Amino acid sequence: MGERRPFQIIPIRQVDVYREVLRQLDGLVSSLRPGERLGSERELAEQLNVSRVSVREALRALESMGKVEIRRNAGTYVLDPNGSPPIEPLRMGLPVDARYLQWLAELRSAIETKVVELVGRQKVDLTPVWALLRQAGDELAARPGEDGMMDMRFEVLLARLAGNPLLIQMQRMVHRLWVASWAEAGLSPGDRHLFHAEHEGILEALEAGDVDRAMELMHDHVDRPVVERTEEDASR
Amino acid sequence: MGERRPFQIIPIRQVDVYREVLRQLDGLVSSLRPGERLGSERELAEQLNVSRVSVREALRALESMGKVEIRRNAGTYVLDPNGSPPIEPLRMGLPVDARYLQWLAELRSAIETKVVELVGRQKVDLTPVWALLRQAGDELAARPGEDGMMDMRFEVLLARLAGNPLLIQMQRMVHRLWVASWAEAGLSPGDRHLFHAEHEGILEALEAGDVDRAMELMHDHVDRPVVERTEEDASR
DNA sequence: TTGATCGATTGGTCAGTCCACATATAATAG
DNA sequence: CTATTATATGTGGACTGACCAATCGATCAA
Lengths: 236, 236
Fold this sequence. Notes:
Helix content of chain A: 55-70%
Oligomer: homodimer
Strand order of the largest sheet of chain A: 1-2
Distance between the termini of chain A: 77 Å
Number of helices of chain A: 10
């Protein structure tokens, strides 16, 4: 090659088609409301001037991110960003054993006590919680066997009153992990009558303005020793 | 159609190729160690007896889940499952303002106080933390301007001592959110000398066995009022 | 030994094709 | 007219075969 270079050689802008498609479709999804339908794969491909394959790969990525739902023969639809967050990032593929359940309980306790603290400090109106609790008491008397997810509903409502969306989201993740893990371990959810009584105790402490006591009660309510224990947990 | 039906018609089991490929590749990834290479797309496709397209879609999903890294012209490699978890599920696209930073601080406080509590209750050896703190003090004296991520390193080490992987993972997520948010808001990280002193205070309380005081110190250390405030935060 | 070259491999992308299923529309039997 | 049945169309799912650009090694020449 000669040393004279009459033309300035500029590297061609290498667009990573897939990334770009993902970026644009992600933006499109954000601009749409939950339930709305994206164009068909063929439409999107044509508008973006890329092949259907690239669109499909991007949609798969969005799907695995939980942002979008792909319905066979029906189209792709935007999901509610507040709907059940993924728990894989937290789970980390750890085996569900007694130790794991203890870790989970500690996590729950960290969050729930914070919720109680925030609710207590802000002196919010607790009437809806009392209403929920009373309804739960009626259900408990009528159908003692039913599950009803009372524990969950109580704490979700409380977290909502705390007014911290990040805390709510985190609670959602931990709760999902919680139910999944207990189901996987095949353990019973516990004494619902005891739970109900403890809920009342926490609420009463909150109403009385005794935040510290409410936090302590919540801590004991959530972070109790796991009944079934494996062999290596003999100590302590 | 006649009412006589000599043949029993059984619906053919329609396997969803993509799901099945994803399932199997996910299992393969779990069985491999971080850094290991999956077979080439063509190999995997042949082994699974599916097309390259299906393999690629599954790999994209695994990639967006952070389980795998696809390197152009080089292959697909298993990622460290402990490496920086995704923060999208927590972030929820919320705007970063003073309120948001307050929420984040509350989340941090929930986790960090729990960490302190666990460390305190287990009476673990705090020598490595002291070592870290001393080193940080030296750095602080030598290069006061440097960042060094001390706050982070201190709390990560403490969380490790607490021995709860779920808590550690959650802390990772919140920390990533924390640094990202403060950077986005364009705020200064704060008085590093003060932080250092507070770290020492927390450690001293832990060493003295005063768990409650350590928790309180950590709470105040993390959940302090945000300096810059927006207009609508006049109240309170 | 050093440097250039060639070829095989790999992920990225594409066009085109076929399939199964769903929905809406049109045709038909009652 | 109604109700049922064909039919047409659109959708995501999957496959094939091909080409590209970058990378890495081996081979070959200076």
